[in-house]
């Protein structure tokens, strides 16, 4: 399995427009973060998790020329805003993009990109096939995907992470219930969001993310969806337990 971090930033990215804080002015490329997304390559498939506004830039940077599926964690713009750019893959691959989302998120996508779902669409609009999933395992071809339900703000705002083989990816969560944690347990690699050091109402902060990492104890843990309020990458790294690292854009894992 190969994992590429396409982006590791929050909805505003890093640097933030017009911000002059030390992180946004940092020359360290690890402090420059596009909106969060990953690419997973396994079992002969390439799966993208989330398709935010930086999708085009991420595909070009990583020279990705084909995708088999897109998994959507939730319907916020920083996770779906790039879906129009699947048009390039439609043209090159002569195939629609297969997008997996919950029923609620499917409604959001159909609203945000209504021109792509009309009965007689304008020529050249993105071709998207929406596949629904619920909180139970589903398959992309022969590949089993296990959704993991978490909460993003309160119990009416949910976000889904995904486990594929021994890899689990969760972003934008502030709460994971015990029964959902059991789906994660045993993963060799866990990626979890950590917005900043100070507590936040809708995202894990650094302390909360590390508590979960220590509870589930993967061989390796990586933190993503990081804001400029976290601090400089190099300084935060020194504070982390040995098995946990801050992810950064372009980081590749193989296991």
What are the main properties of this structure?
alpha/beta, Metallo-beta-lactamase, Chain A, single chain, 7-stranded mixed beta sheet, 7 helices, 255 residues
Description:
With 255 residues, this protein is of the alpha/beta class. The chain has a single domain, classed as Ribonuclease Z/Hydroxyacylglutathione hydrolase-like (Metallo-beta-lactamase, Chain A, 4-Layer Sandwich), CATH 3.60.15.10. The protein contains seven helices and 14 strands. The chain has helices at 55-61, 77-80, 87-93, 103-112, 178-184, 206-216, 233-237, and strands at 2-7, 37-42, 45-49, 69-71, 97-101, 128-132, 138-140, 143-151, 158-164, 167-170, 189-193, 220-224, 244-246, 252-254. The strands form two sheets. Strands 6-5-4-3-2-1-14 form a seven-stranded mixed β-sheet. Strands 7-8-9-10-11-12-13 form a seven-stranded mixed β-sheet. The N and C termini lie close together (6 Å).
Number of contiguous helices: 7
Strands in their spatial order, largest beta sheet:
6-5-4-3-2-1-14
Q: What is the end-to-end distance?
A: 6 Å
Output the radius of gyration.
17 Å
Chain oligomer state: single chain
Would you state the CATH class? Alpha Beta
What is the N-to-C order of secondary-structure elements (H for helix, E for strand)? Answer: EEEHEHHEHEEEEEHEHEHEE
Instruction: Kindly name the structural category.
Output: alpha/beta
Main beta-sheet strand count, sense and barrel state: 7 strands, mixed
Beta-strand residue percentage = 25-35%
Q: Provide mean pLDDT, rounded.
A: 97
Count the beta strands. Answer: 14
Helix content: 10-25%
- What is the CATH superfamily? Ribonuclease Z/Hydroxyacylglutathione hydrolase-like
Q: Write down the CATH topology.
A: Metallo-beta-lactamase, Chain A
CATH architecture: 4-Layer Sandwich
Total count of domains: 1
Molecular shape: globular
Low-confidence stretches: none
């Amino acid at each position: 399995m190969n994992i590429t971090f396409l982006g590791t930033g929050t909805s505003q990215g890093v640097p933030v427009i017009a911000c002059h804080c030390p992180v946004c002015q940092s020359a360290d490329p690890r402090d420059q973060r596009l909106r969060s997304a990953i690419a997973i390559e396994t079992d002969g498939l390439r799966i993208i998790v989330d398709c935010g506004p930086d999708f085009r830039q991420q595909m070009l940077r990583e020279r990705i020329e084909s995708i088999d599926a897109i998994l959507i964690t939730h319907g916020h713009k920083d996770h779906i805003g790039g879906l129009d750019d699947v048009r390039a893959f439609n043209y090159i691959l002569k195939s629609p993009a297969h997008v997996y989302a919950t029923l609620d998120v499917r409604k959001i996508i159909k609203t945000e990109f209504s021109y792509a779902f009309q009965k007689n669409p304008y020529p050249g609009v993105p071709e998207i096939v929406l596949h629904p999933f619920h909180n139970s395992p589903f398959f992309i071809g022969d590949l089993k995907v296990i959704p993991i339900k978490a909460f993003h703000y309160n119990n009416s705002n949910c976000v889904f992470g995904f486990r594929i083989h021994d890899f689990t990816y969760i972003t934008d969560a502030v709460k994971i219930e015990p029964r959902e944690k059991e789906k994660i347990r045993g993963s060799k690699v866990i990626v979890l969001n950590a917005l900043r050091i100070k507590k936040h109402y809708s995202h894990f902060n650094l302390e909360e993310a590390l508590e979960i990492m220590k509870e589930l104890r993967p061989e390796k843990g990586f933190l993503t969806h990081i804001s400029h309020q976290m601090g400089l990458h190099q300084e935060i790294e020194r504070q982390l337990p040995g098995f946990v690292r801050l992810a950064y854009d372009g980081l590749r894992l193989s296991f």
